[in-house]
Specification:
Length: 468
Amino acid sequence: MRRTVFLENLLTPGTIISRRRLTTMATPYKIHITPDNVGLWQATQTDEAAKKASELLQKDLAKHHVFFNKDGFHNHIPHHILALYGTGAPPSSLQSGYDHNTTYQRSVLPTHDNVVSSLSSWDHASDRLGEESHYPDFLRFFQREIETHGPEATLTTFLLSGTPAADDMLSRLYSGFLHPLIQLMYGLEWSQPAIIAEALAQTAVHSDAPLHSFLLEAESLSRKAQHPPLLDIASLLQEIHTSPALSQSASFRDPNKIRDGVLARARSDMLTLASRVRIPVSSLSEATAQMFHTSLLTASLSALPFHPPKYPKFDFFLIHHVNAAPMFVTLNKLDWIPAETKARLLEWKVRMDLVQYAARGAPELDLERLKEYEGMGEEKGEAEEVVRRLWDFEDDGHAIKLGRAALVCKDVCKGFKEKEWMVIQRDDMWGKVLRLIVDSVEAPGPNWVRSCGFEEAWKVSNLITVKI
């Protein structure tokens, strides 16, 4: 079906006009950040920092490919720059973050004009989806779509409409350890059409296997289920931890612990559990906060090794589920997305959280370890001050993204202090979480542990034995 015909069937007259509110001075080809556009955490920023962020993001758009190697490792520069900017980092830190990560990026690949033209009939995309060589073609195509129809209508058509083609793209959005979703998160949070186009193009070149069938089947089972729509993510995680079928479904030797582990050896059990995730529209705000809080708590408790003494280390895969969580806070603020669609996207995120936890060996989540955690060395100050320690930390942006997400999570959870699921209560507990993040990357050895529920993961060289 041609794109214009699809839109005529999908949107009523006047809808497209109302859905262009997201567009600012920024365009699908130009990044434009302003000092008052600082994202969810509302840090104070300067004209100089805004100009620097815009300049660096524009350079990245013009110069770099979506993957920095042929194994599909993602270019994180957009996340890094905006996470720094969104926590108040100065221009010098933005420049340092860019300089540290630009040297190993791959240059942009050539655009194929004939492919771009053919995508006007989306049926022709099927042979290109999942192919990284066509990222420039998808990027140019989505830039033109956004230029013509606006970001909201483009996202609705290609991602959120619930058609088979949109659901194919939606499952790809959640693949690659949520990287396409994180890219879209920054585009929406900062109202940048160019980054939204990057996110859609990135989504298109990711594989949808095996998540597509799993996510749709779990959703179908959930809709048919008789159990009430009560969300208790912590209980579902505990069920995974105590279930031999699920907790032992992945092996440390599996190349891909979701594909070759959980969904290969325990697909039925995982589907049954995931189908219990049901979020009514009336509970959307609380469910978003619960998802965010539980993702952060799971990652934090998993960072405290179950065979101490070792340095604390956050799990590389679990942190992506924290870093992606602000997306759903932003979605709830967008009145052009139906509440039912927001609930659906959140349900998919929670199901992915459950699958990822099982894939990492379902580590024990012991709250007492966090309560007893005193940090490494002397007290490091207030939460905001702790995160500033990450401004000039030399990595690819994962650390500052995690710190920023924790700050946003704290703000989001303020209105739910009486809820049973809300266990990170007092300021001192939030301080422990922030210090734990900084301690994880400042400690000797690798910045992160990979697949923390397996003993083998903690035997990596330089995870030095210490008392924590």
